[in-house]
Amino acid sequence: MALTVEQCDILLDILGETKVRTHTLESLSNELHKKFDSCDYFKVGTCLVMMLQQDLLKEPEQKLVAITLLYELYRGEALANTPFANVFNHLLHPPEHQSSVGSPKQEYPGQLPKLTPPEKQFLTQLLSDVPKDAILKKTATQIINSDVGNTQTNFDFSVVQLLLAEKQSELPHTCKTGIPVVLSLPEKTNNYTTERNDYAALVKTIATGDNAPINKVYKPEFVTLAPPLLNTDDEMVWLNPTNIKEHTVAYDVTMCVPDTAGQEARQLMNKAYKSALSLQQQQQLLGELENDSKLVYHIGLTPSKLPELVENNPLIAIEVLLKLMQSKQITEYFSVLVNMEMSLHSMEVVNRLTTTVDLPTEFVHLYISNCISTCETIKDRYMQNRLVRLVCVFLQSLIRNKIINVQELFIEVQAFCIEFSRIREAAALFRLLKQLESGEQIGLVSSPTIMKAKLEG
Amino acid sequence: MAEKEEFERAVDVVTEQEQEYAQKALNEFKKNNYAGALQFINKLDNRTNDFKVAHNKALVEYCKSDFRKNETFQKNLTSICNQFKIRLDKLDDVDQCIVHYNQAILLYHQQQYTNAIYIMDRVYKFIEPMDDALAKQVSLFAIELQLCVRQSDKALSLINYLENQLINGTPNIKLLDKTVKEKDKKAPQPLDPAMEEFKKKLIKYKIRCYLMNHNLEIANKEISNLLKDKQNFQALFLAANLEYLKGNLIESQKLLAAVPPDYLVYNDSGESSTLMFYNNMGVIHHAMGKPNLACHYFQLALKEDIALTNNAKKDKGMDDKPLYALGGSKYHELMYNLGVSLLHAKRPVQAFDCLIIAVRRYHRNARLWMRLAECCIMATKESNEVDFDIQKRQKEIIVNVIGSQDKQKVILTTNVSKDKKYSTESQSYAVPVPSLEFASLCLRNASTLLPSDTVSSPIPLFLIPGGIPPVPSCSPSPAPSSPLSPESVMSLRNSILAASAYVALCLGDYILALEHAENLLQQPRLSGAHKLLGHLYCAEALVLLDKISEALEHLNPENVKHINLELPKGDENEEKRIKTSPPLKWFPHNLPTAIATMQYNFAVAKTIRGQLEDAIGLLKQIWQMSSKCKVPGHIIMLLLYIELKLGRPEPARKLVKQYLFQNRRKHVEIHHSLLRCS
Asked: Structural domain tally of chain A?
């Protein structure tokens, strides 16, 4: 982002002490445009400004040429849009003049040289809309020595100033705080043999290279404290013996050991999936299950076989599920039960379970929801009536036995009752809901057998 | 379906001859005579449809190889599963449990705990129908796995269930029907020696759980029971662990020293007591606040670990390691310990190298990511003290002097502190080097992995058709460390927020910085230091966002009352039980220094707003504090800046000359210039 040494040499050559005296401003400007690409104009401009700020242009002609070139870099563009518009503003209206405080001489960071009246007039002409061919045909020396007097051009700079101020106000404060890092620190000495060469070298040190000071600013800095290390307990890993050797592979001791124990129970179960067992068979199976609490795991029942068992032998299903309550697999059985097709038998099983053990509420709710949606979607009118009556009696039983908290399902159940209000049981359930709402006492507990009798009767 | 039943029936038919062979094979197996067992199993070869035979054959062959042919065994198990259509992600027959269990065992010894747990969760569902011996083996294994992933609560619930189910025989299901309950209750069985042994094992697991979840009182009781047996060296380790957690570091050291060095030899047991000794000594010294000594011990432990794992490979000139030595290496855990100690020893770059290895294995650990970020931060700024070293800072004010005589120029610094790095490089942040860019990624990981405030909701029942729950993703946990207490989570969250705000500020992302800092200030419990930082970070970010008035409010010295590093006590005035954190130091050490920092930043904000005279007044106040406490070194540069801005280059030049050419009378001079300015 800075000029190369070669580019800097070219620029210094254009600003050469003798050259600025002999060449017209126009020819110098043309040379500049010829030797630099437009992408480098900004760099050239910053370098020119720096030379003006740091007083590195010895002769007044050089200064004038530098100012002219700065303008010429962006000739043809609206002044307020060019990057160095503010420099011209400062040249014409130095800050001291704005704050007319009569205090000791003030000098601001990046201060620009003060212009003489002819220079000022020249700059005003340059910035104004009048044709500039005439003044650019002159040399810098001619302009400096020109007479101010009669040709007063009154260029109204206030429009540009306003635009600039507007732009500035959009910037956050932090963007406007930077000051150049180059600070002049004159040495008091009697030796006045400063050579021109020094200037060039100085300009190059400041304005060229990757790390050029010209591109740097100092802004007021915050102190940003780094946070303390995390203070925490029991972080380090303590090692205790773990006897990893104890965890080793296992031999299947049941190899070729015939599973005689549950042979008969197993066969009965196989039958039970397909058809209803006789009362005697039922008693035999339940008796065997009762005698050996672990037998239930060895009768070949899996969650996928449960629906068949429920449909054909609900009583067996209930007993088996009760025995499996403590098993880790029970949720899988529940999952199957809740998702199987709704029927009198499945409802009977669920009803029995709710009165015997604590079922997860999530399960009961899901089952009720499934029942309701089955009723709503079924096509066969006769079957629908039958199912609705079933569900209503089932729900009444659940509510009366306080298995479910009706508040949690209130909206769903109420909608169901209203939809099927033509059915007597639904109307009865609705009344029960209303009673509950008004906090009335609920009547007798209806037992599952009554429910069954009611339905089949 | 029918076909399957036919098939099952065929398997069910077992001749007496076959039964005899099977019995003999079992007897030989029990005597560890694997060759003999294999002979009998081979006689059952005609039972090609019996997967139990195939399984046992593969197993005995593996045992015969001295548990070394791991890969062959693994392959055989897989092919048996394929042949008999046993799917590892599904289990619905108790007979298949053993294949699954053995697969899980192999995974466990390869340290693939999550996969092993996934299998064992399914096996465990069949714990009731399993025969007693296998059930015990399976339960202990399930407990060990939960401990491996530091889920002490899950482990404890398994233990509870075991105690109820296998030992007392009472079901722990709540039955509404009282009669059923009484029927199921059995008379307590007389304890046989095997049961006694099993109970002892359970107690050890229990103690490990209690130590892990910091239930020290119960742990204490159980350990003192175990310690009655003087030869119980495992109990000594546990006792030392307990004393360490209580903060009795010397006592802990004594207990450790009482364990004979050759108690556990790696080649016999897959564990080395020497390694454990070194590691635990390191842990103790770290807690004592001697991180360098701790590092030394961890390095010894690492050397031991590397030697052991290499030896086990070369042992007996075989390529395969025995099963129990497959995953015995504690490399990643040791790297974690070493890394944290190095960080405390202020060697952040080395610490980073260690932790970056540990994080490969423990990438779900929020605190570990936080530690990595701390390494990055410390590597870029060793301590805040540098910002308060006026002598050093003033030397850095002038970068260069060029030209001479009346054209002499000085080049001032662009920034006094080197924290800020507004990177324009296109390099990815994800390069694992100790940089602030990488720190920002670490911190994002850390906050993502941080456990949420709400206690994790109970796992819902799976009542969805289709049955199989999805593979559990391995949950974020502080493994390899013990689970985090709610308080630790809180202080971890605060630290992550503070570090995130700091890193975002340094990288120039002040919108994010403000978000983190404000979030930090909203936390319910905040240490004094974090409160100070929250206000400082907020203010800086707000100034950069051009909201200077809001920033000034944050810089009110009334906002900070103390700069303690600990969380303030919670509502329950409970005594802190665990005392293992090393003594921590942070700069600023005292409140006045913290206040001076706030005041300085206040002056900066004023300066930026153009209230230069106010700012000088503040600088004067801060300077007067410098006799009592440390003040930021930036103060001189700010003074220089204000002088220049006020259009008074002469005092500024004077300041520069002072620091450039004569460093001696600096205090007096600054003092004068400050007094004069105001």
From this structure: 3
